[in-house]
Amino acid sequence: MLWTRLAREPLDGGGMPRRDLEIEWEVAEDERFAKVIARGPGIATPLFAHSVHVAVNGLRPARWYWYRFRSGKHLSPVGRTRTAPAIGSSPDRFRFAFVSCQDYQAGLYTAYEHLAGEDVDLVVHLGDYIYEYGVRSGNPVRRHEGAEVTDLQGYRNRHALYRSDPHLQHAHAQFPWMVTWDDHEVANDYADAAAQEPKSPDSFLKRRSAAYRAYYEHMPLRRSSLPQGPDMRIYRRAQFGDLVHISMLDTRQYRSDQPCGGAIQPRCAEALSESQTMTGPAQERWLLQNLDRSPARWNIIGQQIMLAQFKAGNGAEALFNMDAWDGYAAARARLLAFMANRKPSNPVVITGDVHSSWVNDLETNFDDKTSSVVGTELVGPSISSELPPPFELAVEAARADNPHSKFFEGSSHGYVLCDVDRRRMRSDYRVVSDVTTPGAPVSTLASFEVADGRAGAHPG
Ligand SMILES: [Fe+2]
User: Which pLDDT band, with edges at 50, 70 and 90, does 311 fall under?
Assistant: First the structure.
């Protein structure tokens, strides 16, 4: 999918005429467009904020291409993208980066400046692409342009503000992206039709419609993700030959409400209830079927909130995050039991949401030290979001009660580089030293490897 949007006044409704505009697109085999191999017309319509989504067919697999758009006398900057390896092929190597959580007010996108220079085939975004909040009090690094966004115009302007960042633009122009959302693309900790604050489902679904629509408009999504009112199918699968398959999950649209009052709580019976669902039954069946039928050596599951258990304290007093899979323990147990019994090849879960870096063993019973490891979870740091100060200390204090959690670091920002071959998957946690002043350097915080056929990551 090639994507662009026409906007003369991006922060104020777009500033475009209220009619369809014709555009042209071109795809070339070289950066200078000497060998244009596809071109065609397109329409930018005010119904979708003059965004343009072009599906180009007939390209060759596993190749870089360059593309641009023309509208009247305006020529867009040049973007680069890459096609996936062919379905039946056996690539030796596939590299991708995964990112999440980019609160504009919390910091600069220096991580994207460095990511744009990395050698990857794909960028995977795991959600919190925008934050819906109003202007932060105190002294934010940058400012949102107004109050908390709740309607279509507001969400469109917010996406446009985020996209005005040159490093984010450049990272989009360097690689294909595969995106899914978390909560802040709509509202903090929402669950299906329920807002965090009690509001009528009717008014929340109206808000969700506006947010989903603006998200579709601003992302390189296929027509299969076209929103229908408050509904939008974003969970989907991508195949990179027989080496890597990615199942991208949506853990917001179909989930049961957070149990036990939400947030960080001792676990009540509701958190263990069989009826608590994170994915909804249809997406759960789809995921298990993907894993069962996949011929891929590495089966990546891209999703939002932490899958591994994490408890602070012991016994009935132990605290769990009710927004994460700990509030949906029976649904998690089904997924992990499936991994234990059906043994899909090398399941690796990649996770965002918690603004911190983790490596976790996935076990069928996290409280049983003899339980076998059935998969691996890599949790990536945020691009620029903040953590409430007690979080890091609380996690450090509880590390000993969570031996399946192999690594934690809670103060850095960055992205995770994954280098996959037929023998192992290597992950480098790449972090910048600071997001408040421009030009911070990038370095590798930690590296882990998962060996083919052996679940669990080890320092590499
Ligand atoms: Fe976030």
Answer: very high
